[in-house]
# Entry
Amino acid sequence: MGIVFIFGSIIRGFKKSSIFLLCLVSFLNLAFAQNIAGDWAEKKSRHFIIYYDSGVDPIYVKRIFYKAESYYKTIINSLGFRRFDFWTWENRCKIFLYSSQKKYYNDNERPEWSAGEVNICERMISSYTQGDDFFNFVLPHEMAHLIFREFVGQKKLIPLWLDEGIACFSETNSRPERLRIARSLVWSDMYIPLEDLSKMNNPDSIILPVIFYSQATSLVEFLLIDYGADDFLDFSRKVRDGEEWQEALRAVYGFETVAKLEEAWVKYLKDESKNNN
# Structure
């Protein structure tokens, strides 16, 4: 996917101390890279602070402010978090924007397929100017990761498909195609069983990313659209307050097992397709 996540909570077996150290080391590495990168200009809005190098067009930065604040409202509303005001004053989200891929790769030591990086622990997004791809894909994707984790907690163990599904659902350009692929997978019985999908918690080991991310997006859409944002808020609150995600799923949605969720999701997609034909 080209998105690198700097948090250890989705990897089962991590101890709290390990997660803390991972966040600390990631922050220090990013901060060191940014300190030696050169001159950084700074702009602030209600929920964001944007740092950008001298090669970034100020007009581009203004557009980021507009888009970021707009996405912020859209994401918290879609997830049911509208009564909570994240990222104000000293807790504002920081966006570090490079003027080129080369500067981003060199300063952050990221692989060439990386389009953006999010540090959950420090509320940071790091990326580079890349036209509409940044506005339609990278920015809302990374913001959704941060907002969801801001609410449920950085260290909560939840399946990768849920984290990624929320982020992909928030994208503006690729969501329709992902949902179309998911419908095709269901109708052809080629989808990954949800029990298996829930065990895929290492992004680097996903063999069929198109299937994984399409299913993840569709499952989150099913929960948000068919059941509504208020139920998703209740689910997220239970996870935040210490319930395991499967227990929260059972308590809010009534799915006794992930297989029951899969069954309902498959029926939802097949009924949707029948109604559209």
Observations:
- The beta strands are 3-5, 40-44, 48-53, 93-98, 116-119, 124-128.
- The chain has two domains: 3-152, 168-276.
- The longest strand covers residues 48-53.
- Residues 89 and 148 are 19 Å apart (CA to CA).
